[in-house]
Structures are given as C-alpha cells and as structure tokens.
Write a structure and sequence with these properties.
Layout: E1 4-9, E2 19-30, E3 37-41, E4 53-56, E5 61-70, E6 76-84, H1 85-91
Antiparallel strand pairs: 1-2, 1-4, 2-3, 3-6, 4-5, 5-6
Length: about 100
C-alpha cells in the first residue's frame, strides 16, 4: 500500500479527456455486495472517469476506475475505487500476455 498511482479519464466532459490525477493506494478490499476485490486510492476521480485506467508509477495499468463517493455538495471525499486489472481481465476471460504487472 501507499504506492503512487495515476488515474486517467475525462471528468465531467469529453472536452477534459486525458486528465491525469495522482494519489496513493490506501487499501485493498472486497466490495461488500459482490465480494469482488477493489483498490481504494485517494486519487481524485469524478463522473466521466469511470472505465479509465489506474496506472502505477511505471505506467502499467493496475486498475480500472469504477466508483467515487461525493458529499452532499458533490465534492469528492477522497474515497475512490478501482477494479484490479487482473480481475477485470479475468471477468472478460482475458489475460495479460507475458506475465507483466496485473497478471
């Protein structure tokens, strides 16, 4: 944990496509409803970032943006969640060739 990560996406609008934010991994946990593994990070994400990659410091895709919690005013709370890339690929019956990160 506490590894540096970058989230790439298009927050709020396609006009902001390619926006990058930096943060750290706070926790690895399971979703309470589905049991699927999740990465929790303080990397800021907004609506529109969902489906975008979460990269490690070397530029490897380690996750996919899936959720963020906002307060009543719509401001990000710092609770952001990502599906680990290996789990996302497994659900699609795909795998990383060469055994690189996330495999």
């Amino acid at each position: 944990m506490s590894e540096t990560v970058l989230a790439v996406g298009a927050p709020l609008s396609e006009r902001m496509q390619g926006t990058v934010t930096q943060g750290i991994v706070s926790s690895h946990r399971k979703d309470r409803l589905t049991g699927y593994p999740l990465i929790q990070a303080d990397t800021i994400v907004h609506p529109g970032n969902s489906g975008g990659p979460l990269l490690d410091a070397n530029g490897n895709v380690v996750g996919i943006t899936v959720a963020t919690f906002s307060n009543a005013e719509g401001l990000n709370t710092g609770l952001n969640f990502f599906i680990p890339i290996a789990d996302a690929l497994a659900r699609l019956n795909l795998r990383v060739e060469g055994g690189g990160p996330g495999s």
